[in-house]
Amino acid sequence: MKKKENIVIIVILVVMLLAIIGVSFAAFSFSRAGNTPNTITTGSITMTYEEKSNTISLNGALPTADETGMVRLNPGEYFDFTVSSEITGDVNINYEISAKEVGEGTIDGSNIKLYLTRLTETGEEQLMSPETYNEETTENTYTGRPSREMSLYTSSMTSSESNNYRLRMYVDEGYNPQGDGGGLQFTIQVNVYGKSGDKPPTAGETVIENLTSGSTYDDGVDTFITGEDPNNYIWYSGKLWRAVSVNNEAGTTKLVTQWHISAIPYNASGNTVFEGSYMEDWLNDTSVDGFLGNLRDYENFIVTDAKWNATTDSTFLGEMERPSDDGTVVIDAVGLLNMYEYQQTSYTGRPDSFGYLNNGSDWWTLTPASSSVLRYVVDNGTPNTLNSSTALGVRPSINLKSSVRIVDGDGTIDNPYRLNGDNDTNLSGTLLSSRYSGEYIRFGNDENNLYRIVSQENGTGTKIVSATPLKNSGTFITSTFGSNVIFSSSTTIGTFLNGEYLISYVDSAYTDMIEESTTWYLGTVGSGTSYKLAKYTDINMSSTTSTTTEAKVGLLRLGELMSGQFDRYGNNTTYWTLTPYSTSRVCGVYYNGGTYGIDQTRAFGVRPSMNLKSNVVIISGTGTKSDPFEIDLQ
Predict the structure, then answer these.
(1) Residue 23: what pLDDT?
(2) What pLDDT, on a 0 to 100 scale, did the predictor assign at position 77?
(3) Nearest alpha carbon to residue 134 among 355, 391, 426
(4) Which residues contact 276 (CB under 8 A, 6 or more apart)?
(5) What's the chain's average pLDDT?
(6) Other beta carbons within 10 Å of 586
(7) Are 86 and 229 in contact (CB under 8 A)?
(8) What is the DSSP string of 150-216?
């Protein structure tokens, strides 16, 4: 049967009215256009978009936290609708639910959040985490959605079915209503687009399709991307990744970060087991201190029950066989690449030739060589082994779901692929504290004006760090740590950071954005101990360490996000953390990516870190290295 191309667009007008009285909101409501569902039938396809209630009303609504906005169930606080199809024959319908601002709104969309779920027999299934209103810059040719609309959800149908959805819309908790004059209004038009045709390609399929011939290798299970520098760069959640492989059956895409997000001991000395290790803990920690907890909407993007094969293998590179699923397999959301995967992507059969995964630094793999040592990749690309107590660079790996699509970019390092749902453009007025670890910020003066988001550790503001150690006329500056290993504003490096740095490297326009005092955690992390001890009294995180100091500017601690190396071959240098290694040494991040105890009287690089105030907002930019956020005080 010949497939017919059908585009179905069903529109309901949703109006949100806000009137300010003092600092509180009066009611706003959704109102529908018309009293009957809109239904369009074209050929064998019928799609309907139906309201089940007339209005949604929120009386006396103040800016709302996600935890509250996501669960509102009082009458008028949510908007239910149905998307259905009647399909005969061999037809696939790609459809998409989107929102489009219409009219002259008097409150910016960056202050409005939308949250979409699917209604099931047992409750609600989250389809989209709460997101501020943000329009896509490109159209979706598979569904018919035009550009300049916010994509809420994309799926497909191959048989007649009906799906019930629930939309909530509320004011972001970070919005400050004081002084806005009242009479606020924001209007969105909710659209459903449907188009027959092949399913859109997965992220991995798009990457592979655009590679040059001979840039892949299929081992029968996964299709690996190979070569010295293929166009397989992906920007997701504030970090630059490389697409490594595509699973032939599931359609998932394995990624690994281009650079080291941090550096930590793998585990206690002689313990090479991934399950239960410090490494597994750090990668899958959902708190503010861990990697997974700082990934954007990870439930929507990545496979959370992925298989990670950590089978012991000491075979020479180039002779390794695919590890069996009957070996050591751990189920996790985040893992590391194993040595076999490194071989398939980066080894061309010559001992001096390695591919794109060689980033010029030392980093852990998932593969033990024995029960006492682990395999890692040396900065020249060759494999080697080390005791698991050593702190080396960490390059997290994830598997993108087959439903994740690429919507922009060409896969080059300067224009990496962008993913649907992580391609924000209209961010003017958005609080910086709502953004993601790794995103870039313009901050400071001259050659030292690029910073990155670390986390929202203090709960209200945004912790940032210099993207690279400080320079003076292109040369890295150095400082000794001080007379002892405990950091404070009066030690040598602390005096510099809270004195000359604030005067010479950051002018008043930026210093006004910095919190006057931040608590810096100074727990000791020695060889083979957990990264958690840098902040907490024990690995259960029962309480924070009592060894702290207060200062305006400090340094990152061992194991903290962004405390890795993000460049190679002379463009990076060894720099200090504020974490003591022993009574006479301080942990420093070496130029090759590892972390070691260094005599505090030696001189090394400096990466200033600080907390920005909660009312710092974005005025332009997309948060990438080539287009960092420009920021200001609200």
Answers:
(1) 25
(2) 74
(3) 426
(4) none
(5) 86
(6) 28
(7) no
(8) EEEEEEEESS-EEEEEEEEEEEBTT---TTS-S-EEEEEEEEEEEEESSPPPPHHHHHHHTSPTT-E
Neighbours of 293 (CB within 10 A): 15
Residues with Cβ < 8 Å from 533, sequence gap 6 or more? 523, 524, 525, 539, 545
Q: How confident is residue 19, by pLDDT bands cut at 50, 70 and 90? A: very low
**Is the pLDDT confidence value at 138 over 70?**
yes
For residue 182, the model assigns a pLDDT of 57
pLDDT digits (tens, 9 = 90+) for 54-103: 334 334 456 888 889 999 887 667 777 777 777 777 778 888 888 888 77
pLDDT for the residue numbered 387: 96
Number of other CB atoms surrounding residue 466 within 10 Å: 26
Please name which of 309, 302, 303, 299 lies closest in space to residue 275, comparing C-alpha atoms: 309
Residues 566 and 633: their CA atoms lie apart, in Å, by: 29
150-175 burial: b if 16+ Cβ within 10 Å, else e: bbbbbbbbeeeeebbbbbbbbbbbbb
Q: Say if residue 352's pLDDT is above 70.
A: no
Task: Kindly indicate the confidence band of residue 322, based on its pLDDT and cuts at 50, 70 and 90.
Answer: very high
Which band of pLDDT confidence, cut at 50, 70 and 90, is reported for residue 115?
very high
| CA 16/CA 64 separation, integer angstroms | 15
**DSSP-derived secondary structure letter, 354:** B
Strands 479-480 and 603-604: antiparallel
CB 422 within 8 A of CB 439: no
Q: Where are the domains of the chain?
A: 7-196, 203-400, 426-633
* Count of CB atoms situated within 10 Å of the CB of 287: 12
Q: What is the mean pLDDT of residues 471-493?
A: 95
Neighbours of 387 (CB within 10 A): 18
SS3 at position 300: helix
Residue 117: the pLDDT is 94
247: left (phi over 0), alpha (psi -120 to 50) or beta: beta
In this predicted structure, what is the pLDDT of residue 507?
Answer: 85
C-alpha to C-alpha distance for 130 and 134, rounded to whole angstroms: 12
Look up residue 209 and give its two tokens: 């399709």
Both structure tokens of 553: 């500017």
Burial 227-238 (b: 16+ CB within 10 A, else e): beebbbbbbbbb
Tokens in use for 309? 């094969």
**CA distance linking residue 168 with residue 76, whole number of Å:** 10
Strands (E), 310-382: 329-332, 363-368, 373-377
CA-CA distance, 339 to 323, in Å (whole number)?
A: 10
Q: What is the pLDDT of residue 184?
A: 65
What is the identity of the amino acid at 366? Answer: L
- Interatomic CA distance for residues 423 and 428, integer angstroms: 14
Mean pLDDT, residues 104-133 taken together: 86
Alpha-carbon span 180 to 7, nearest angstrom: 41
395-433: string of b/e by CB count within 10 Å (b at 16+)?
A: bbbbbbbbbbbbbbbebeeeebbbbbbbbbebbebbbbb
Q: Which amino acid is at 231?
A: N
Report the distance separating Cα 112 and Cα 109, nearest Å: 5
